[in-house]
Amino acid sequence: MGSKTNTIAKRFIIKGRVQGVGFRPYVFRLAYEYRLSGFVYNQTDAIVIKVQGDLSDINKFSADLPERLPPAANITSLSITTEPVENIKTFTIKESLDLNDDISEISPDIAVCNECLEDIKSQHHRFNYPFINCTNCGPRFTIIQDYPYDRRTTTMETFSMCGTCEKEYIDIHDRRFHAQPVACSTCGPQYELIQNSVSVSRIQEIILRVSQLTEEGKIIAIKGLGGFFLMCDALNNSASKKLRDSKIREGKPFAVMFKDLNTIEQYAFVNEQEKKSLISWRRPIVILEKKKELAPEVGKNFNTIGAFLPYMPIHYLLFEKLKTTAIVLTSGNISDEPIIIDNHKAQAALSPISDALLIYNRDIYNRTDDSVVKIINNKEQVFRRSRGYVPEVFELQINADSILATGAELVNCFCLGKGNTAILSQHIGDLKNYETYEFYLESIERFKKLFRIKPTLIAADSHPDYLSVRYARELSLPIVFVQHHYAHIVSCMVENQLNTPVIGVSFDGTGYGDDGNIWGSEFLICDLKEYKRVAHFEYIPLPGGDKATEEPWRTAVSYLYKIFGKELTYSDLPFLKKIDSNTVSLVIQSIEKNINCPLSCSAGRLFDAVAALLNICPVSDFHAQAPMLLESVLQKNVTDFYRIHQDDTLSFLPVIQHILDDMKNLVPVSVISAKFHNTVAEAIKKTVLSIRETSGLNQIALSGGTFQNKYLTECVVQKLENLNFKVYTQHLVPCNDGGIALGQLAVAAEKRKNSRLNELQEG
Ligand code: ZN
Ligand code: ZN
Ligand code: FE
Questions:
Q1: How many angstroms separate the alpha carbon of residue 306 from the centre of ligand 1?
Q2: Label partner for 736 (CA 20 to 30 A): which of 170, 273, 487, 701?
Q3: Ligand 3 centroid vs 651 CA: distance in angstroms?
């Protein structure tokens, strides 16, 4: 090696997801393969490699480098420069330069890799061993208790490595070199199946029994990577029904894990982009269009399936034996509570609703749910950001150090700033639920510890009653309050690295407005410093306030009352047939007398009203069910839309009247829904056109939960791009309230930057 005259040296600087994913050992092995000398080390934001050797070997090395990456690694930039040759004979992994502050070392959990799936059938000490992992795969975030990432700081610490595992762990040529959760049948964690107080611990026996139970239509509580799940045969309707009843989850579709991609394609339409998301190492639940029905109780009238592929070794072992090719795998929680992670709690809470409990003896430290994505406009859009995504950081163009953004309320995530990066928490849930609020508090403390952050500035929603806002106040630190819909748009701007003014279209179900009303159809002109509300939908009273969210018929009645007043015989309306007539009269009286009728311009409520009017969803079982069902029934390739009345406020009263006419003329619900969606898209188009005319702005940021609607978003983007607008949407950050905290963080950072400047100027 090295001393011949044609020896040259090259330096590679690589950026991307290159830390905590087995990149350095990978580089080492590749350099070894081509007999190159040199070194590799981590820098805060990059990996630096120096290699020396024959030109042809270096060329092979550099061609292979991006091609044979560890599964979770990803290169965003690679620069190669020629260097002077040094007197180095070997290749070494150097200590990281900036170890103390290197937060990007913490990787999300990674689905079991193909090589491990081969090892599980060939390695004697790991034969059918369901905790097999390597530097390229396995648990990460869920087991990390502290920094730096090391076996001692994970929940693997209680398992001491056997001689065989240790040998692999210290051998740089081994794929398990420094794989912190390395384990085998002798020394690692074990599963245990508990059924009628009888415990089974041999893995073959466990797999066999679980398969039998599943075949018999039983429900099994099973400990996953980030929490417990409830499982049953997705082709067995009575099992699915039983699971639905016990979880008190009336209308929400279940996620389904399929044996393989081929099976998914039997039940759902899968395009290239969707395939990519399904097989990615993150293994999210991907919402796909349904092709064939599973058990009806699984999908519940939706035209979509939340599908995902196995990601833990145990899933693969199970599908080898299972007769069914699809299983329901839904979070092990009751209603709105957080997913259970503790064995004892699972035993207490899940045993009564399941026939057997499959646990293991390694603790889950950081709770994660399965992440949920949908492909919109050929790009992955994360709706629920958790396993496989968290704690990945976002680069900011502004210093947000020591800022804590406390998020929203219903779909809460919080966000912490460290230097120029933002760390968005996993999906926390609805803070109004007591257990969820506890989880929120606990997670904030854990993130602070894990990432070494001591907040000095807080960012919070401007809603006076949100629990996240009350919490913010309790901290006795300076607070920057950020209007909800503005935070949505800034979240989108930050994700797309925009820092010049945009036209923001912020549509969602609810958010506290500056005038004290409920907003949710906001057209803003904004940058990171300030915003101006330039248009919105017409206000309508929401009879019963929050109650209207659960009972869309109330909003429908409110629209009708605004049009017809007392002239209508409400009890005759089909969608009110199942509603108690006294309640209906009380609601009408409350509108007349303006009692408990806050004003709202929310787009979500408009979708609710239309869904109720069409009798698709007069009463809602879960958050956003009505808009989801309305999208679900729509017929594609309808281009027609309803006329709207438009000046500064957009009135949909004429649209409601047209819809009533269409209903009278027996136009199918699917067509009416499509026309309504097109109308909303058209309203957005017209409004931003007139804003462009007066402001000269051409870039649009779309955010807010309403844009989880695939049809609407694709329709809006197409209409706007046809008019040469530059349109930005969200992808790695949820456009629902789960993304709010990132926007709050950036607004607070900007405010701090400017006030500091002022101080400097004054001083
Ligand atoms: Zn592996
Ligand atoms: Zn071992
Ligand atoms: Fe929102």
A1: 26
A2: 273
A3: 21
Q: What is the DSSP letter of 99?
A: G
The alpha carbon of 34 and the centre of ligand 1 are apart by a number of angstroms equal to 23
Nearest ligand for residue 486 CA: 3
Distance 592 CA to ligand 3 centre (A): 29
Q: Which ligand is closest in space to the CA of residue 463?
A: 3
**Could you tell me which of 697, 720, 730 has the C-alpha nearest to residue 492?**
730
Q: Is the pTM of this model over 0.70?
A: yes
Confidence of residue 100 (pLDDT cuts 50, 70, 90): very low
Q: Phi and psi for 233 in degrees, rounded to 5? A: -70, 120
Q: Which ligand is nearest to the CA of 736?
A: 3
Give pLDDT, residue 3. Answer: 47
Bridge partner residues of 308 (DSSP): 257
188 alpha carbon, closest ligand: 2
In angstroms, the Cα distances linking 227 to 359, 360, 376 are 10, 11, 28
Calculate the dihedral angle through the C-alpha atoms of 172, 178, 183, 187, rounding to the nearest 10 degrees. Answer: 90
Q: pLDDT tens digit string along 56-67?
A: 999 999 999 999
Antiparallel, parallel or unpaired: β 521-526 and 457-461 = unpaired
Work out the burial of residue 517: count CB atoms within 10 Å of its CB; fewer than 13 is exposed, 13-18 middle, 19 or more buried. Answer: middle
Residue 623's nearest CA partner among 249, 229, 243 is 249
Q: Cα(176) to centroid of ligand 2, in Å?
A: 11
Which ligand has the shortest distance to the CA of 485?
A: 3
* Cα of 591 from ligand 2 centre, angstroms: 69
Instruction: Determine the Cα–Cα distance for residues 357 and 199; give it in Å rounded to an integer.
Output: 10
Q: Which helix (H) or strand (E) holds 10?
A: strand 7-17
Q: Report how far residue 196's alpha carbon sits from residue 209's, in angstroms, rounded to the nearest whole number.
A: 13
Strand-pair category, 599-600 with 540-541 = antiparallel
Q: Are 212 and 203 in contact (CB under 8 A)?
A: no
For 69, other C-beta atoms within 10 Å of its C-beta total 19
Cα torsion through 507, 512, 514, 515, rounded to 10: 100
Distance CA 760, CA 756 (A): 6
**Cis amide prior to 148 (ω within 30 degrees):** yes
3-class SS of residue 21 = coil
Confidence grade of residue 436 (pLDDT, cut at 50, 70, 90): very high
CB 298 within 8 A of CB 328: yes
Phi/psi of residue 293, nearest 5 degrees: -75, 135
- Name all domains of the chain by residue range, CATH numbers in brackets: 7-93 (3.30.70.100), 106-189 (3.90.870.30), 191-360 (3.90.870.40), 380-536+735-762 (3.30.420.360), 537-728 (3.30.420.40)
Judged by its nearest atom, the ligand closest to the C-alpha of residue 110 is 1
Exposure pattern of 221-253 as b/e (b: 16+ CB <10 Å)? bbbbbbbbbbbbbbbbbebbbbbbeebebebbb
CB atoms within 10 A of CB 546: 12
Ligand nearest to C-alpha 134: 1
Token pair 């790009």 in the structure block, residue: 379
For residue 669, what are its two tokens? 């619900």
Q: How far apart are CA 560 and CA 92, in angstroms?
A: 74
Identify the band that residue 569 occupies on the pLDDT scale cut at 50, 70 and 90: confident
Give me ligand 1 centre to Cα 111, in Å. 8
| 457-461 and 479-482 beta bridge pairing | parallel
